[in-house]
Amino acid sequence: MRIFFLYFISITVSSFGCEKISSEKQPNNDTIPSFEVQKIPVITGLNIPWGMVFINDSLVLIAEKSGDVILGNVYTGSKEVLFKVPNAVVYGQGGLMDIRLHPFFNQNKLVYFTYTKQVSGLYTTAVGRAIYENKSFKNFQEIFVAEMLSNSGVHFGSRLIFDGKGHFYLGLGDRGNMQQSQNTKNHMGCILRLQEDGSVPSDNPFVTNPDFLPEIWTNGHRNIQGMAINPITGELWAHEHGPQGGDEINVIKKGLNYGWPLATYGQQYGGGKIADPSYPGTEQPIHYWTPSIAPCGMAFITSNRYPGWSGHLLIGALAGQHLNKTSFQGSTLSSEWRYFQGEGRIRNVVESTDGWIYFSDESNGILYKLVPKI
């Protein structure tokens, strides 16, 4: 069991211009980071920036919840709307969500999107892709529609990530109906594994099991909001929102059940037990947060831009309104730090093609660059 400490000691630091430089530490961390960081605004005036991906060192594609795809330049601060994703609708928490480049984007120019789609008056999550060339998109194709139709406006997921082996993973939510995360005849509360064209891989764990839909890789999730490939181990890591408390980080392994709602460290909104923290046949998180921070977006640091941080994990926080940095020894948490507390809801965190970290503040519509102050 990984225990999360509930209180933090604030370390006084200097400010740089109008930007706060901060470092806040858990009581069990003995080592103060060797440098402070500051956030530099690079693009402003965004409308709920949900997903983002860099094309090159200066240009970033940003998915706004409204359905617009923005091309931004982090060198000049310019931005322009390039594309409105077909079929994407704003409904509750849903809208245009994630955006990713195909691993061979430089050759095939494919860009993938996840979005909320309406079907017969109900709503689900879908995946589409289009070709990007010369600041325009063409040949849009919807390649997958999840089987999780509901009139609920919550818990659509939906992060997408490629494994570099011809597949992508799609993280989904329970659509506000917790029991459905254990119903494997639909996609609610599941991580799916699909081929790059949206079809089912023949080596998925349940392709011959009539009690599971064949796209399912894992089940028992509440609402996946971040996924990343660990650059050291090659494993898929994911985090998800808990109810009131019990947000989790999990190492995702083929065919396993991650427990929701049979096991949780959270409780009902307003109080009341949902379940014990563990349940036979389900996996334990490698870390959890109580109270909730509402994690969103995640990126492993792989560059040398931040001395001593290579391999560390950065996660945005919506309810917690901070940038969260964790380090692990294997799958055991060794330290956790919070930056820029109370300064905005951080929706996504990415590493650019030249190794800098950028994160989006949906409260203020700003894309920030994270810069060390050594």
From TrEMBL:
Domain spans labelled Glucose/Sorbosone dehydrogenase: 46-368
Organism lineage string: Bacteria, Pseudomonadati, Bacteroidota, Flavobacteriia, Flavobacteriales
Name recorded for this polypeptide: Glucose/Sorbosone dehydrogenase domain-containing protein
InterPro entries from the UniProt entry: 6-blade_b-propeller_TolB-like, Glc/Sorbosone_DH, Quinoprot_gluc/sorb_DH_b-prop
